[in-house]
Write a structure and sequence with these properties.
Blueprint lengths: L3 H16 L1 H13 L9 H15 L8 E5 L12 H7 L11 E5 L5 H8 L14 H16 L7 H11 L3 H11 L10 H9 L6 H13 L4 H16 L6 H8 L11 H5 L6 E2 L9 E2 L2 H7 L2 H4 L9 H15 L25
Helix pairs in contact: 1-2, 1-3, 2-3, 4-5, 6-7, 6-8, 8-10
Pfam families: NPHP3_N (PF24883)
Keywords: Repeat
InterPro entries: NPHP3-like_N
Length: 351
């Protein structure tokens, strides 16, 4: 299990330590005093000891202002898993940060997130819906110019038309740039032809039309390829915790029917525009944007690429087969069962 909510403050602390020597010394001091901080799952304790106290200790010694970005908080996990994280961000402790440190959180307005943060006096909430349309278009145009401007067949007119077509959707602009840019996973056509393709996409349901265009380009139009695509995507979106591609492959090798033991890598290797964990094998495989998940499970939107109901029998069968083959006594190789996890030296990688 990933338990992203348990890793977020440790990750932030590591990032700050890499960038600022004063903070690095303060963090090293905290870890030297209490070794259990390296593995604790207590989010409030992580915030206090790994973030707040080291920052306050080095206040005045850090150079410049610090902005900590927590992007897509809504995608950190199911609602119960982020409850403690939200309580920390909304607490009075979060208001005790040094004056040169701020936290920027982005998220869709899910009820639990909106309720927790809107009630905190130190949180300033801004909705993108309230921003002027011209401001959004300017930002998107700058992004597109940066990504596509160097291409030979793309000039100011094409950049402007792409920004207008995006309709304020950054995710559509990202996908459009990936689709047009050569050397990516898009297989067919020149830069000019791919640009013309996105310009001809229907205006209604822009993201859905873009998903359709990308999948049409990377998934062969035959029944076998479509069946395998649906099966693999069912596996990805049905697991409670996202799995790395090697784990997906191993699980699929234990599916009961031979026809379901298709090559996961071959199907996913051309889908890095839509999924994480394809080019970076250290990351779990998951949709880069939550809208792609919604697209796949809605037959009216995905049509040919609708994944259908997940085959939980296959997942259960494969999970039990792996447990039967690999589960063994003292699988972590611990020397004693009388110690708690925090008391076992170097237990982090094993437990």
């Amino acid at each position: 299990a990933e338990h992203l909510e348990e890793k977020i403050f440790r990750t932030i602390a590591c990032d700050l330590a890499e960038r600022d020597p004063a903070f690095r010394r303060a963090l090293a001091g905290a870890l030297a005093t209490d070794d259990s901080l390296k593995t604790t799952s207590d989010i409030a304790l992580q915030w206090q000891k790994l973030i707040l106290e080291p920052l306050c200790k080095v206040f005045g010694h850090m150079v410049g202002n610090v902005v900590i970005v927590v992007d897509a908080l809504d995608e950190s996990g199911p609602e119960p898993s982020r409850r403690h994280l939200l309580s920390v961000l909304a607490s009075a402790q979060a208001a005790d940060l040094p004056r040169n440190v701020r936290i920027l959180v982005t998220s869709r307005p899910f009820p639990d997130i909106k309720h927790a943060l809107s009630a905190a006096w130190h949180v300033r909430a801004v909705s993108l819906d309230d921003l002027p349309v011209a401001s959004e278009e300017d930002d998107i145009r700058l992004y597109i110019m940066k990504r596509l401007g160097p291409l030979r067949d793309i000039g100011p007119t094409e950049v402007y038309r792409t920004a207008q077509k995006a309709g304020g959707l950054f995710e559509w602009a990202r996908l459009a740039c990936e689709f047009v840019n050569p050397g990516r996973t898009v297989k067919n056509g020149s830069v000019k032809e791919r640009f013309d393709n996105i310009m001809h996409l229907r205006s209604g349901g822009l993201l859905d039309a873009m998903y359709q265009a990308i999948l049409k380009n990377v998934i062969p139009n035959d029944q076998t390829a479509l069946t395998q695509f649906r099966s693999v995507m069912q596996q990805i979106i049905s697991t409670l915790e996202p799995l790395h591609i090697d784990a997906l492959c191993k699980m699929r090798s234990h599916f009961p029917a031979n026809e379901d033991r298709c090559d996961v890598v071959a199907i996913l290797e051309s889908m890095s525009l839509l999924l994480s964990g394809i080019t970076d094998r250290s990351s779990p495989v998951r949709p880069l944007h939550a809208s792609f998940y919604d697209f796949l499970i809605d037959p009216a939107r995905s049509q040919t690429y609708f994944v259908g109901e997940p085959n939980m029998y296959n997942l259960a069968f494969a999970s039990l087969r792996i447990l039967s083959n690999d589960l063994r006594f003292n699988i972590c190789g611990l020397e004693s069962s009388y110690l708690s996890n925090s008391e076992v030296a170097g237990s982090g990688p094993n437990i």
